[in-house]
Amino acid sequence: MIEFCVLGPLELRSAGAAHTVRSHSQAMLLISLLVSEGRQVPAEALIDELWGGGHPADPANALQAHISRLRRMLDKLEPEGTGSRLTSHPAGYRLRVRDEELDGCAFLAEVAALPVAAAQLPPAEVTGRARRVLGRWRGPVFGGVVGGAICQAGAARYEQGRHRALEALFEAELGCGNHGAIVPELSALVATPSPFQERFCEQLMVALYRAGRQADALDLYHRTWSRLAGETKTQPSGRLKAYVRAILEHDPVLALGGQRRHAAGAPVRRPAIAVR
Question: How far is C-alpha 203 from the chain's CA centre?
């Protein structure tokens, strides 16, 4: 069995030893096949992934040479295997890999289970689970290797999973009353552009408010959206504005456990805000 690790520098683990792929082209080829998760990848797509617009004189032959070297490396790591993992097909190539053998697949499955855990378990237990899931990350995905469309799509999928895990983590930390402890982590995330930036901003505003820093929470809102409006013309959503109104009105929904108490009482007269 080989364990393929892509949530950090590309690494192959077999028989208790870790192996790296020294060739940049070989690394991109392996990553492209791994993130395709057992699906056949057309030769043309792999050629574009490895060389973009600068194809060698005979790209099909060059790709076949890389495939042969990669197959030999994988076969050497599994001397008792029942056939090569890397197979050739008329239309392309396929790498046989089970979900549990690829840390990225295992990670995404664990992330998908976090919302169910959050609905069933105490916040402290969800916090521990989310941090264990995030502990799979060893650094920048693929070790910072930048490939073509296949690699970039795979990296984006794993990064989105990481942000979903972080969202679940901080929601659970808020539920535990650890608002002061998560301010530095959330501040760093709010300062980094991502599709989850608004959600992290909401969580940071709640953390600051509960820490007695109402003015800082409101200043965060104005600074963040002033910057984004200038850079991307993005405007705050109605949901985020609802957080601002709740802060200004000292709405009990923002208190620890307030969302649960509020849900059992009078109807909310603003867009629903999820605060533990």
Answer: 18
CA neighbor of 161 nearest in space, from 136, 178, 125: 136
Whether the CB-CB separation of 9 and 20 falls below 8 Å is answered with yes
Is the Cα torsion angle 66, 72, 77, 78 positive or negative in sign? positive
Query: Whole-prediction pTM value?
Result: 0.87
Classified as helix, coil or strand, 255 is: coil
What is the separation, in whole angstroms, between the first and last Cα of the chain?
42
For 77, which DSSP code? H
Reduce the DSSP state of residue 44 to 3 states and report it: helix
- 133 in Cβ contact with 103 (< 8 Å): no
CA 104 – CA 6 distance, rounded (Å): 6
DSSP string, 126-162: HHHHHHHHHTT--SSGGGG---SHHHHHHHHHHHHHH
- What pLDDT, in 10s, does the model give residues 153-207? 999 999 999 999 999 999 999 999 999 999 999 999 998 888 888 899 999 999 9
Is residue 20 a contact partner of residue 145, using CB atoms and an 8 Å limit?
A: no
